[in-house]
User: Fold this.
Amino acid sequence: SLDKLYNFADCAGLHLIFGLNALHRNPDNSWNASSALSLLKYSAGKKYNISWELGN
Assistant:
């Protein structure tokens, strides 16, 4: 889970960089960002210091 990954990085003195991609698509081929938004909101709620990148 994200909590375990973040805690591991934090305990090891590392900064977590999380890569997102635009794989999930809507029927009109636009990016379905709902999963990414959920992850971002969850991380913000936990006050996690994470860097994010978007790529394919």
User: Anything to note?
Assistant: The beta strands are 16-20, 50-54. The longest helix spans residues 34-45. The first strand starts at residue 16 and ends at 20. The chain has a mean pLDDT of 95.
